[in-house]
Write a structure and sequence with these properties.
The chain has ten helices and twelve strands. By secondary structure, the chain is α/β, with parallel strands linked by helices.
């Protein structure tokens, strides 16, 4: 029997399902919406079925589409595993590797060693993606993600790569204007820097129940670091992003014994799907970086 479905059309079909719309799929694949539409139309014509019910805002799978989806995923997974096996015969991992991490982790832990990684694995094409929130690995076509904090995903394989202690810090410039807090109660008298879009990250895991009410907020840890460095207030930040600042005394730690440790915010894991076809590339990345990370 001749298989009529083209691999590219199957990939686009699955991406539309995962993204929920033609537009989102086009953005993720960096294609025009018209190309996505033509691909789905061609696949429906070849299969002689309707795969999606279209509406103005979203597309939903028909019964036939839902049935075909599982076979399409399995087929592409098998092909990817076959290509991976052939690459492994050649001795070195090869292909695309999409890595997701919060921007501070990218800036301070991954990017500084990326040149060395590319020298070690010249056939791996790396795509670094910065997301401050947890992403769906399938929906975002992500191979491996670095996640800070305790994991809740049961369908992901997790490689624990350590823990990164939290420090309460501010710049010498700030402490030149305001006295250092001598106890947790005095924190309420200071300007505090926190997260705008993730209230749970404003839990500082203090040994006393002191409410943390930020006077200035930012959407990611790197912005909070920059605010602290420029004298805007006191923040709590992970060691992986401020170790050099502490060593150079551009940030000063206060109340070092006041943070509960270990705590859920200190965990650092690399996560990926157990059946990922990019497993050799993922393990190459993890094994290379596990000795590089300075948490």
């Amino acid at each position: 029997m001749i298989v009529k479905s083209k691999t590219e059309d199957l990939e686009i079909f699955i991406t539309v399902v995962d993204c929920g719309s033609f537009t989102s799929a086009a953005n993720l694949l960096d294609n025009q919406v018209a190309k996505i539409s033509r691909s789905i139309a061609r696949l429906e014509r070849e299969l002689d079925v309707t795969l999606f019910n279209r509406s103005t805002r979203r597309v939903e799978l028909t019964e036939a589409g839902q049935l075909f989806l599982n076979y399409a995923r399995n087929a592409l997974e098998t092909l990817n595993r076959g290509e991976e096996a052939l690459n492994n015969l050649k001795g070195t991992p090869k292909g695309k590797l999409r890595i997701d991490a919060a921007s501070p982790f990218l800036f301070h832990q991954i990017i500084p060693y990326m040149e060395d990684f590319q020298l070690a694995y010249p056939d791996i094409q790396v795509n670094l993606i910065s997301n401050e929130n947890i992403v769906d690995l399938i929906e975002k076509k992500t191979d491996v993600a670095i996640r800070i904090g305790r994991l809740a995903d049961s369908n992901l394989y997790a490689k624990n790569i350590g823990s990164s202690k939290l420090h309460i810090v501010a710049s010498p410039r700030y402490f030149a204007k305001f006295n250092k807090p001598q106890n947790l109660a005095e924190l309420k008298e200071h300007k505090l820097i926190g997260f705008a879009d993730s209230p749970k990250l404003n839990n500082w895991f203090l040994k006393q129940d002191i409410p943390i009410t930020p006077t200035i907020t930012a959407s990611n840890g790197e912005s909070i670091r920059q605010l602290a460095l420029n004298g805007n207030g006191i923040a709590i930040l992970s060691n992986f992003m401020i170790k050099k600042d502490l060593d150079s005394k551009t940030l000063i730690e206060v109340l070092p014994e006041s943070v509960v440790s270990p705590n859920p915010r200190e965990e650092v894991n690399a996560v990926y799907y157990k059946n990922s076809a990019a497993s050799s590339r993922i393990m190459a990345f993890i094994n290379f970086y596990v000795d590089k990370f300075r948490l």
